[in-house]
Structures are given as structure tokens and as C-alpha cells.
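Sequence in, structure out. Go.
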Amino acid sequence: MFDLAFLLAPTFAIFFLGMLLRRASILDRHAADILFKLVYYLTLPALLLSVLPYVVLSRQMFFLPLISSLVILVTFAAAIVTGKALGMRKPSYAVLVTGSIIMNLGFIMPFVHSFYGDDGLARLFLFDIPNGLSTYIIAYSFACRYGGIAEKPILRRLITSPSLLALIAGVLMNALSLRPDSISMAILHSISKLTIPLVLLGLGVSFSMAKINPVYLASGIALRMMLGLALGLGLARVFNLDGLDRAIVVLSASAPAGFNTMTFASIERLDREFAATLVASCMIASMILIPLLLTIL
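Output:
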């Protein structure tokens, strides 16, 4: 238990530092957006290219995108049924559905890196492929349908994603046994080390909550995390996954609601307070759930 606390202490410390910096008016939401853009366009692609060419990719690992897709589809169906059963207004209904299917794998990345290292990150990146695609193909389309104000999802935005391109390049380099030269690797490694601190600071700065219908909030948390946890455990057993592969599936499937839930709510003028509170509440729940799962997986 002491070892776990030692590994996770920096993760929690940087997250709470982000909250303190916002409270002290040193950083604000605009600053958090800049931090996330740095991660998206620079540090995460560098991390992918510094990790994927070197890890051992087994056949079993390629079940991870399939499992991720199944988690998303089942959760999507369950969220639609739940929202209709609760008779939710369209702006809140859209937030419930999008928040349920977008997994915030950036939030669990620091935990995975601290506990499982580069091998865990490689599996997390593979699991994230359908999650990233569904964020814009399914979740954003759903938000547009019930908001109908912003631009429609654009395929170009997906195929030009720096992270997706870096992931594809990293997997190809691994398959072809290509490695960056020593100077390039040193540069990539230096940039990639910024990823986790920037993500944690951005998450802390973005943290906010409001008074929301407790049934709606409980439903969102249950759909995203509790159903996700059940699906992760069940699908890991169906596909006979064990060890690190099983751990990554369970942790990823039970991840909190993604920050794009708030982005889409803002763009499409959905229920912004519900979106912000759902994301924040899931993060709080994850701070309890993730360390617990790390001790038993």
C-alpha cells in the first residue's frame, strides 16, 4: 500500500496544484485550453513516437480496440434508453449520452504510467483508438443533432489528428523494426515527459461543479463508470485476457467522462452545467476507484 501511495502521490499533487492555481487566479480555463492544445499537438505525439517503436506488441493486444468499440456501443445504447426513460430535456439528454461514451483516458494515463510504465501506455493508446474516433463520429454527431448550431463533424479533423498519425507511425515503426536515431529520441523523450504534468495541471484548472438533478448525475456516473467497469471485467473474461492486458481494459472501460463532453456542450449550447458537473464528479469518483482497482488487478 505504501508503494502505491508513493507512486500516485505526484499524480494527485499536480492535479490539486492545478486547482490551487485556478483558485489563486494564476491560471484560468483559457490557460487550461492552451495546456490541452500543447498536449494534443505536441507532447502526446512525441510520447507515442517515443514509446510504441520499442514495446513488444502481442496479438492479444490487438483485441483492445475491439473491446473498446464494444464498450462504447453498449454504453451508447444504455445511455439512450436511460435518457428516454428519465424523460430528460434534449440539452441534458445529449450531455448524458455524450458523457457516457467519451472515456477520459487522459485522466488515467498518469496512473497507468506510474504503475505499468511504457508497456501499459502502449496498451492504453491502442484502447483509445475507437474512443478517439467515436468522440467525433458518434458523440459530436449526437451533440449536433440536439444542438444543431456548430459545424458538423469533419472527417478531415480525424485523419489529420496528430495523435492518431503518431500512433499509426509508431505501430508501423514497431512492425518494421524502425527506431528513431539517438538525437531524435532524446528530443522526443524530453518533450514527451511534459505530457502527464500538463494533462494533470489542465484537469485541475478545469475542475468545476454546480447543483444538478441528482438522478441525472447519478445516472451519468453509473453509465460511464459502473457500467464501464462491468463491461471491462466481462469482456476481459470473454476474450481471455489476463495480466497487463486485463488491467488496462478494466481501468480504461471505467474511466471518467471525457472533457469533450464539456466542449461539445459549450459549442452546441447544451446543458453546460450538467456537463461540467458530470465530468468533475466522475473525476472525483475515479480518484477513489482507480487506486482501488490498481491494488486488486
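Check: The mean pLDDT is 88. The chain has 13 helices and no strands.
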